[in-house]
Amino acid sequence: MIPGPFTYQRASSVDEALQLAADGGEDAKFLAGGHSLVPLMKLRLAAPDTVIDIGRLAELSYIRDEGSHIAVGALTCHDTVARSGLLESRVPLLANAAGQIGDPQVRHRGTIGGSLAHADPAADLPAVSLALGATMVARGPSGTRQIAAEDFFASLFESALQPGELLTEIRIPKPDGAGWSFQKFTKRAIDWAIVGVAVQGGSVALVNMGSTPIRATAVEQALAAGSDAADAASHAAEGTSAPEDFNGPRAYREHLARVLVRRALEEARSRAR
Ligand code: FAD
């Protein structure tokens, strides 16, 4: 439970963070809220040579209405996202899901950028970003680029970010009044989802049903063809590869996915304006 040796550096600006990352090379890691990286370091599943603390970069903590989309700074903590009046009124799916992450301590330290960059298929916000059609903004040695959520989650705990690239902002198109729902099945309120479902209009994404967060494409196609919630939800496990673990076999998660997708679609329809 003790991390290996590493060099700690604290960045006081985005530019400095990028410079420190460039100097640190491939074995440098950014530290945001530390609620995923530090446990991994303690278990020695991560062993960065250099840890660059970006946790005090206030310039990356904001939620702004930019007209066509809402911009959320990567260092915005889950609690701020959950309590944002702007998000509650314009993107309630994101505010609601952030409010279901872990416990109050986790929500005050963990950040939206850290959660997305960590690319854990069992985390809530990656699937939410897929359902919302979010765009990630990253800054690195070769400048700034935008990455669609669809292209961001490369594999298990692997995002499209290159070494030294910093996720700076998440852009969320404003939903058009279509209904939404976030369903999360846990044993205890503070746990990660055994299975989760994010619905925004006709977009449906699944938590913990594969090695990355995934779109429930077969459900989306059934909805587009006019199926009702029950029929569309019966396709929820198609194309998934749910993990088997102490929570149960794959078939258990597949059953949960069908049940939760149905609930989510029914709730989303009841909320549509
Ligand atoms: P860190 O731990 O600091 O970083 C995580 C990774 O992302 C590291 O590799 C880091 O280098 C990288 N990184 C961080 N920020 C950036 C950036 N801006 N640009 C590039 N790379 C970056 N999550 C859920 O979704 N649902 C839950 O129910 C849940 N429950 C939890 C319960 C507990 C007890 C704990 C400890 C965590 C839980 N989490 C849960 C995870 C939590 O949401 C983490 O805060 C989140 O996954 C990581 O965010 P962070 O800011 O702590 O990132």
Task: Give the SSE map.
Blueprint: E1 7-10, H1 14-24, E2 28-31, H2 37-42, E3 50-53, E4 63-65, E5 69-73, H3 78-83, H4 85-90, H5 92-98, H6 104-109, H7 112-118, H8 124-132, E6 135-140, E7 143-148, H9 149-152, E8 153-155, E9 158-159, E10 166-173, E11 180-185, E12 195-200, E13 203-207, E14 214-215, H10 217-224, H11 229-233, H12 250-271
Parallel strand pairs: 1-3, 2-3
Antiparallel strand pairs: 4-5, 5-10, 6-7, 6-10, 8-9, 11-12, 12-13, 13-14
Flavin-adenine dinucleotide binds next to strand 2, helix 6, helix 7, helix 8 and strand 10.
Summarize the structure.
The protein has helices spanning 14-24, 37-42, 78-83, 85-90, 92-98, 104-109, 112-118, 124-132, 149-152, 217-224, 229-233, 250-271; strands spanning 7-10, 28-31, 50-53, 63-65, 69-73, 135-140, 143-148, 153-155, 158-159, 166-173, 180-185, 195-200, 203-207, 214-215. By secondary structure, it is of the alpha+beta class.
